[in-house]
Amino acid sequence: DPDRKTEVVLLACGSFNPITNMHLRLFELAKDYFHETGKYKVIKGIISPVGDAYKKKGLISANHRVTMAKLATKNSDWVEVDDWESSQSEWLETLKVLRYHHQKLLPPDATNSLEDAVPLTKLGQKRKREPNRHNPIKKKNQSPDIKSVPQVKLLCGSDMLESFGVPNLWKSEDITEIVEKHGLVCISRAGTNVQKFIYESDILWRHKNNIHLVEEWIPNDISSTKIRRALRRGHSIRYLVPDGVRAYIEKNHLYGPESEDRNAGVVLAPLQKYASDSKN
Amino acid sequence: MKSRIPVILLACGSFNPITNMHMRLFEVARDHLHHTGRYQVIEGIVSPVNDNYGKQGLVSARHRIAMAKLALETSDWIRVDPWESKQETWTETVKVLRHHYNESLRLLQCKKEFMKTQRPTETSAGDSLSCQHPVLPELKLLCGADFLQTFKTPNLWKEEDIKEIVEKFGLVCISRAGSNPSQYIKESELLTQFQHNIFLVREWIQNEISATQIRSALCRGLSVKYLLPDPVIAYIAQHNVYTEQSERSNQGHLLQPLRLHSTRGTPLSD
User: Which stretches does UniProt call biased (Basic residues) (chain A) (predicted)?
Assistant: First the structure.
């Protein structure tokens, strides 16, 4: 019964500095993976570029990064760009972005608030068991069982997953909520390192059923870092990024030695935040 | 002022189908040659192999040419040439090189004739200089490192062909992770002799899009978006180019060069 498939939205957070064909491939690979399970239907892909306040070295203005991502997804009928995260004045934890997008998918209900967002699953099943009941009166925090709410899953590469281990980069309660309440889709080349990383983490291991590992069958190393390096050296980036993105970079003279030096010596926002938190 | 040597890059292969990686080879090669300061790459040519090559899964040249054209629509320097695919039978790579080299000379000659008909005031100083001392273009074979390795496959290449390719034309060989082309050169006396004419370029941005895997993905209904240009993907869908059946074509057959060069008598067993 095709209606019983769980709907999934894939959310990719990152610098996208710039967006590359590899980023776009992550979505395609994840979508194919979920469809092949027969249990999920991917209904949307969201690219959420990080805000400038992240302070990563070489990070250029969010305006450009969002525009490039939009150019890149022009020809996609299911992947889109969302600039909510990038338009915040402060850096936002990834979990907050996940919650926000999950919230957006819930049916309109005045009682729902960002903090109360709770993912809901298998509501169709529940409804089937009570065929003659009217819809119950909505109470705060109770699941609206009109239709199931899509799950928002964090789409990433193995580097992001492994960054969970970097001290002060992530809050462990955030990691827990990400894997417990939302889920992770991790695309990697050879699964081994990632599997080992999951094995060595109690939190990840406990929720490994909600961590989907997808093997990338085309080794694809088109990292943004390499793209920026190529540009600084006057090398071609054709066929590594969508043509519209390449043209935009060229026209606006993005990515030179000066842009790479931005935020040099500045502490990354999450590290800044958690280091000062732990001091307090 | 020493002028740069004009270079034309020629890539021969199945292009079954053409992928972003094939086109990257051209870009990487061009960057490399330009950075030597000695060369100016003036053209890139994609030459899809003749149907008669007999490789398993090879679809009609009509499709392979059409797809390459779509892929290169937005390139201002790389083009597809159907000459090889239009020959009556499979043609040795060296012959394809010779053909395109002669073509480039012919074009240069035509240009010179045309320039002569112009009044002197209408030509720029640069043009008249180049007419007096034309720098002949060099035609180089563009390939991956695995291609170099195939020189060792028994009966696949004629020794004299390899010699002509590296001596008279030259190779631009893009290497990917896991291959060691300088090793192959060292292991071959012939290649070592002409190593000055073999440009080894390292591609640091790994992007190993194998056409075989692409075809397999297409058969399984998996996405190949961002690995091939969108128009090529659309073409494949529209014409149903790659199917389980197309994958089986030429199954069990010998490649044409092997067929031609193997000793007469018993064919190679499977």
Answer: 124-141
Fold for the domain defined by B5-112+136-262:
Rossmann fold (3.40.50)
Chain A touched by B212 (CB under 8 Å) = no
pLDDT at A204 over 70: yes
Task: Measure B114 CA to nearest chain A CA, in Å.
Answer: 34
Average pLDDT over residues B66-75: 96
CA B5 – CA B33 distance, rounded (Å): 10
When the pLDDT of each residue in chain A is averaged and rounded to a whole number, the result is 86
Instruction: Show residues of chain A in contact with B225, CB under 8 Å.
Output: 24-25, 28, 76
Closest among A157, A145, A201, A138 to A10, alpha carbons compared: A157
pTM over 0.80: yes
Among candidates B28, B207, B210 on the partner chain, residue whose Cβ is nearest the Cβ of A222: B207
Strand partners of residue A7: A41
Stretch A38-66: mean pLDDT, rounded?
96
CATH of the domain at A194: 3.40.50.620
Chain segment B133-190, per-residue pLDDT in tens: 568 899 999 998 888 888 888 888 999 999 999 999 999 999 876 778 888 899 889 9
Cα-to-chain-centroid distance, residue B193 = 23
**Residue A232 is encoded by which pair of tokens?**
């600084």
A25–B227 C-beta distance less than 8 A? yes
* The two three-digit tokens of residue B132, written as one number: 């007096």
B74 contacts A243? CB cut-off 8 A? yes
Q: How far apart are CA B237 and CA B225, in angstroms?
A: 12
Range A108-146 burial, b when 16+ CB lie within 10 A, else e: eeeebeeeebebbeeeeeeeeeeeeeeeeeeeeeebbbe
Tell me the three state secondary structure of residue B209: coil
The boundaries of the domain holding residue A239 are 6-109+149-278
User: Model ipTM?
Assistant: 0.81
Distances, alpha carbon B13 to alpha carbons A34, B53, B144, in Å: 35, 10, 11
The 10 Å Cβ neighbour count of residue B65 is 20
Gap between the Cα atoms of A100 and A194, Å rounded = 27
Mean pLDDT, chain B, integer? 88
Give the burial class of B29: count Cβ atoms within 10 A of its Cβ; 0-12 exposed, 13-18 middle, 19 or more buried: buried
pLDDT at A239: 93
Neighbours of A18 (CB within 10 A): 28
Number of domains in chain A: 1
Q: Is the CB of A159 inside 8 Å of chain B's CB atoms? A: no
